[in-house]
Amino acid sequence: MKKDDIELLREIQKNTEKRMYALDVMGNKVYDDSMALMLARESFKYGEIHDRAKAQLLAANQRPDPENKVDRLVVSAQIQGNTILNTSTSHLAELMIRGSNRGLSSLWKTMNHNMQAGEKSVELAKELMDFEENSINELKKYL
Q: Running DSSP on this structure, what letter comes out for residue 64?
């Protein structure tokens, strides 16, 4: 496995971990049943993509990055700070859209810096990006 593949798969792993954690923290604040169901489905899909990225790393005898506790604290603090006065469905959807956009930017940047990545890892990254874009479109309904 090439260095570019490893970097891309680790970015996918990091990105999905952040999103799963954000969805977990956000889940306690969502009062709209249809949005809560959508976010639960999203969390499941992020977990699936995360596991596939991790499996590809392990298959190539590469260690996946350990869970970043600082990232978790930052995500939690951002969500808590941004929802202290406003937990409306519209506001929560807006926060989730912002997070998805940050994830997309991060993935594009990593893909552009790792142009030699193989088909499997690029395909997984594109699947995650397509999922993020679809997620944004679904969340726009709640704005």
A: P
Single-letter amino acid code for the residue at 70 = V
Number of domains in the chain: 1
Residue 15 CA to residue 108 CA, distance in Å, equals 12
**Sequence-ordered list of residues with C-beta below 8 angstroms from that of 81, at least 6 positions apart, any chain:** none
Whole-prediction pTM = 0.92
Supply the range of the domain harboring residue 67: 3-142
Q: Do the Cβ atoms of 87 and 33 come closer than 8 Å?
A: no
CATH code at 74? 1.20.1260.10
How confident is the model over 54-110, as pLDDT tens digits? 999 999 999 888 888 898 999 999 999 999 999 999 999 999 999 999 999 999 999
- How remote is the C-alpha of 129 from its chain's centroid? 9
User: Could you tell me where the DSSP H helices lie in 60-113?
Assistant: 69-83, 89-113
